[in-house]
Amino acid sequence: MKARMKDMVRVATARLGGEQQAGAASSGYGRRESMAARTARLGGDSLRRQPQPQAPTVRTVYCNDREANAPVGYKGNSVSTTKYSVLTFLPKGLFEQFWFFSPVHPVTNVVPLSLVLLVSLIKEAFEDWKRFQNDMSINNAHVDILQGQHWESTPWKRLQVGDIVRVMPTVPYSLQYVSLVPSIYSFLKTANLDGETNLKIRKALEKTWDYAEPGKASEFKGEVQCEQPNNSLYTFTGNLIVDKQTIPLSPNQLLLRICNSKKWYRIQSDRKVPICSVHPMEQATIQCLGCVKSKIPVAKSYHCSAKCFSDAWQHHKVLHERASSALNENGAEEEELFGRFSSGGSGVLSTTGSGSLSNFGQNPGVNNGPMPSYPSGTDKNSGETWFEVGRSRTYTPTADDIGHALKFECVAVDADKKAPVGLPSSIMTSRVIPAPTPTPRRLIQVNGDVLGHLDLDSQTSSLGTFTVLSYNILADAYATSDAYSYCPTWALSWTYRRQNLLREIIGYHADIICLQEVQLNHFEDFFAPELDKHGYQALYKKRTTEVYSGNPLAIDGCATFFRRDKFSHVKKYEVEFNKAAQSLTDAIIPAAQKRMALSRLIKDNIALIAVLEAKFGNHGAENPGKRQLLCVANTHINVHQDLKDVKLWEVHTLLKGLEKIAVSADIPMLVCGDFNSIPGSTPHGLLAVGKVDQMHPDLAIDPLGILRPLSKLNHQLPLVSAYSAFARMAGVGYDFDHQRRRMDPSTNEPLFTNCTRDFTGTVDYIFYTADSLTVESLLELLDEESLRKDTALPSPEWPSDHIALLAEFRCKPRIRR
């Protein structure tokens, strides 16, 4: 993002005259209007009750054309907030004091009354004098307006409606404008009528970006059509008409009073900072001399610890062999070869006099775009040299910033003198590091063939197959520093994790995505619109009550996405276990125990069931017209480990519901989610085997008797865990041995899908009906040792405490019955 905020050209709107608005007109975003109105309403704070504006007529302001505006007779820009004048002070002041009457004794109260009146009038006079001084300060402050093809300094009070004004980055302004030309985003401090101040983002219309220079700006001719002055302080309606094109104005283009100057700096140092080639967040402490001798790019020779170097040794041996072969084949001279490797991207961050880093390649986690040139500055106290890199409230680091600290500097500006007030306030960041890149996970066929790394651009399901992803993404409401103290705060923040989650989910290129712990606001504001851009349709079911937080937006739930080009939505079922608990207690629990029973059973868990129709054929010539339906269940089961009976009851309730769907239609089924049940538990046994071992110790916990008789704990769905196919995989080799070592041979399930400091185990599953679906391939499992380098999950590399599971399925041909 471009950081420097250049001089900005603005157009003063029709509101710049008359009463002082104090920035109330744009304290929030407005509501949408109909297309027929062709206007954009700039609304007030969304939390306020919006007053209904009077029906205004159109007010037309001609930009950069005083002669055209003259006949209208707009008021000047002089601001007056005083209550009195020299002539009206005494009568109005006395009226203010005697606006109500009360019985007084004419003799004994005359002296006290006179004193009170005198003090009150002096107070009124002093306050009005301060208002007068403030008005004079604003009215006599100078502003640059466009006169011909040059800027001319003029007092505010002489500014007229329609003038084009230049707003400098360090100069505040005291009226409203329509923004025409910024360098990019402007971050402005605004003041509301209630005294609240906050920062808002403003950006000009793309249509007017070319009018930054005075010569070009002098050619600008446009019209601002807006409402007449009215009693609605929190709304504004207007359009900008340029070249016969009507462009709605939004809150992003309305500028208010007061602006602070903000700058970002990068420290300049001659010290080289090596970065670990395996863990780019860490500073290197070891360099592989074998890599140096083999003339391997120096960036690959650095490691952060002896263990890191040891773990990477096998990979290094391969690099050494390849480098030696290349050197022998090419016959290049040592200096030429070394130069060629070094220029490709060094892991040592060396700086040049211009403030840019040399020998560093592009990094996917930072902004690698061109940066504007800013002057450098030297700290007189420390002697450090700082290069200015931005002038905005926020700053996105670039590749040049890697290895350096950043400093944010903010200074208040005097509105009268247009000069900084006092010393700047500043904060420093820690060293900028490259964005961690998760280890690519491969899709492995169960017959032993490795498909390779997943690639969003090239990985697609083969004809007649589809992929399903199940992932607990860790809701932001649960991602607290208390629960995950080992994870850096910045890596735990939602603004960081959501980008990593989206990148990971999109990278898997699944046809069906089942997510758990998706907060309602994050679904509506982030996942649904972002995945819609990639061709997914969304379904969502929130939990039945707020958890931990009273904020209804912080409630989480299950979200199912599917590709519109591969599936169409047929039907949606929502399972609320709370309602099932109510029915159960009404049927079997005595009235005296209902309250206790509901307290144990109601845990707000839900399931989302979607019936989809495939748009790809898989029926063969015998059934060319048959619809291929698919039932996908996405659930999040109760997490409390001391409520084993409730877990089993919720899973049994879900399976009975799926059985009813299976009876009504011959349909393949997928059951995905976070079941909060390890392999060998009763819920897992019910899913995988179809019944529960009646001697299982977990069945001893049933204080309400909801599991009796035990014979009812069964189902007829032929469910099989997708990842159990790894145990049956018939491949031989390094990759296959690794996958088998990441499986538990006693349960045929992964060793873990949830990895925190306090718990490591499998609680997430993808089950499928084996009579109608077959597993083609599975996403490889992760190695616990590689995750433990950051203690546990989540981490800067992995955004959730769970790992994603993905399986590719093929529908079996239907058999006529």
From TrEMBL:
<dbReference type="Pfam" id="PF16209">
    <property type="entry name" value="PhoLip_ATPase_N"/>
</dbReference>
<protein>
    <recommendedName>
        <fullName>poly(A)-specific ribonuclease</fullName>
        <ecNumber>3.1.13.4</ecNumber>
    </recommendedName>
</protein>
<dbReference type="InterPro" id="IPR032631">
    <property type="entry name" value="P-type_ATPase_N"/>
</dbReference>
<dbReference type="InterPro" id="IPR050410">
    <property type="entry name" value="CCR4/nocturin_mRNA_transcr"/>
</dbReference>
<dbReference type="Pfam" id="PF03372">
    <property type="entry name" value="Exo_endo_phos"/>
</dbReference>
<dbReference type="InterPro" id="IPR008250">
    <property type="entry name" value="ATPase_P-typ_transduc_dom_A_sf"/>
</dbReference>
<keyword id="KW-0460">Magnesium</keyword>
<keyword id="KW-0694">RNA-binding</keyword>
<dbReference type="GO" id="GO:0046872">
    <property type="term" value="F:metal ion binding"/>
</dbReference>
<comment type="subunit">
    <text>Component of the CCR4-NOT complex, at least composed of CRR4 and CAF1 proteins.</text>
</comment>
<keyword id="KW-0804">Transcription</keyword>
<dbReference type="InterPro" id="IPR005135">
    <property type="entry name" value="Endo/exonuclease/phosphatase"/>
</dbReference>
<feature type="domain" description="Endonuclease/exonuclease/phosphatase">
    <location>
        <begin position="469"/>
        <end position="802"/>
    </location>
</feature>
<keyword id="KW-0479">Metal-binding</keyword>
<dbReference type="InterPro" id="IPR036691">
    <property type="entry name" value="Endo/exonu/phosph_ase_sf"/>
</dbReference>
<keyword id="KW-0805">Transcription regulation</keyword>
<dbReference type="GO" id="GO:0003723">
    <property type="term" value="F:RNA binding"/>
</dbReference>
<comment type="function">
    <text>Acts as a catalytic component of the CCR4-NOT core complex, which in the nucleus seems to be a general transcription factor, and in the cytoplasm the major mRNA deadenylase involved in mRNA turnover.</text>
</comment>
<feature type="domain" description="P-type ATPase N-terminal">
    <location>
        <begin position="61"/>
        <end position="98"/>
    </location>
</feature>
<feature type="region of interest" description="Disordered">
    <location>
        <begin position="358"/>
        <end position="383"/>
    </location>
</feature>
<keyword id="KW-0539">Nucleus</keyword>
<dbReference type="GO" id="GO:0005737">
    <property type="term" value="C:cytoplasm"/>
</dbReference>
<keyword id="KW-0963">Cytoplasm</keyword>
<dbReference type="GO" id="GO:0004535">
    <property type="term" value="F:poly(A)-specific ribonuclease activity"/>
</dbReference>
<dbReference type="GO" id="GO:0005634">
    <property type="term" value="C:nucleus"/>
</dbReference>
<keyword id="KW-0677">Repeat</keyword>
<comment type="similarity">
    <text>Belongs to the CCR4/nocturin family.</text>
</comment>
<keyword id="KW-0378">Hydrolase</keyword>
<keyword id="KW-0540">Nuclease</keyword>
